[in-house]
Amino acid sequence: MVASVQWLFLLGITTIQFTVTKTQQKDDREKKPQSVRDLFNTTSCIPPPFRCPHPQMQFYLYTRSTQEKGELLNTLDNNSLTYSRFNTKYPTKIVVHGFGGGRNLSPSTDMRKAYFTRGNYNIIIVDYGTLVREPCLSQIEWAPRFASMCIAQLVDYLQYHPVKPVAPERIHTIGYSVGAHILGLVANHLNEGKLGRITGLDPTIFFYMGNNRSRDLDHTDALFVDILHTGAGILGQWGPNGHADFYVNGGSSQPGCAHDTIFQTLSCDHTKVTPYFIESINSPVGFWAGPCPNLLSYLIGWCEPKDTEYVLMGEHLTHRARGVYYVTTNAKPPYARGFPGKSRRLRSVTPYS
Ligand SMILES: *[C@@H]1O[C@H](CO)[C@@H](O)[C@H](O)[C@H]1NC(C)=O
Ligand SMILES: *[C@@H]1O[C@H](CO)[C@@H](O)[C@H](O)[C@H]1NC(C)=O
Ligand SMILES: *[C@@H]1O[C@H](CO)[C@@H](O)[C@H](O)[C@H]1NC(C)=O
């Protein structure tokens, strides 16, 4: 029941957007799906056989010395990791993009650049770009589950590796949009151990496309789960579901999400969330966020956290953070506003003026 309401809501939105933007879309009309029916019949559906590793779901390793050219990891061959630049001394990040992403596309590229500006890392980009140019609706229920099985296979490959083993607890995974949901499912398929951290970057939309909440990203999926919400308002408030949930600028209506095709509506990566996270990696001032139980209190300005209650959102977040936090950003980069002044309330200033 709930599921069908969500579907109707989703279909309603896409229909409206088509009507509005029909005229602007002449050029793209050939290439892009124009109706929900097209989405059921897109070439982006995962081709069989459905086995991991899947030829169209690839794992590319990047290190500081191989920033431009990733090394393809083969989870069926231990030598592949042995002879790569993977170094167990470096922190390991696994990054899962959303619809329309890929290893050579922003924000995967920007995120790598930010990390390598900071130091040495093993960054593994899960590249399934050829599969998710457009979401294939007939597979949307199980495709993320399939992707999560392949990622679990990668995590097990790393933990049992004879030469360069890395325990899941030492791995930080970052997923945006549908990628965040995929990471929430990895736990179900791991042989043993638990992921150290999952950072979910605006997983809102996908929630509305499934009908099984037990498959959503939540705090049981890793030792520490932090979630950044920026587009929650588009399809309704979601969460809190992690150990720590961050609502940026109230958690909705970040500017810049394109809505001119059904694909962009579904894939809208809530364009601001990844730049916020990427900026947090090297920000000299930081995104200091204060606890506040709900949006209303935040909007009214009721929340006046103590200095000690503020936490740094993003990469450098303390794993002791618990609960719901709010943070306001600048409209243009640098987005981070630093630590709020002593008398400043945690409040909703108009962020885009
Ligand atoms: C799906 O696409 C194929 C090839 O483009 C076409 O022949 C077929 O009629 C389409 N099916 C539906 C249900 O649209
Ligand atoms: C890699 O090595 C581990 C430990 O020796 C072994 O259990 C595993 O089966 C090997 N994996 C592959 C793909 O050969
Ligand atoms: C929801 O997903 C879980 C895990 O995949 C499964 O065990 C459960 O049966 C599902 N529930 C429904 C209502 O489909």
UniProtKB/TrEMBL annotation:
GO terms for cellular component: extracellular space. Transmembrane segments: none annotated. Keywords: Secreted, Signal. SUPFAM superfamilies: alpha/beta-Hydrolases. Residues 1-23 form the signal peptide. The keyword Secreted applies. Its main location: secreted. Residues 54-335 form the Lipase domain. CDD domains: Pancreat_lipase_like (cd00707). It is found in: Secreted. Pfam families: Lipase. GO terms for molecular function: lipase activity; serine hydrolase activity. GO terms for biological process: lipid catabolic process. InterPro entries: AB_hydrolase_fold, Lipase, Lipase_N, TAG_lipase. Belongs to the AB hydrolase superfamily. Lipase family. This is Lipase domain-containing protein. It comes from Parnassius mnemosyne (clouded apollo).
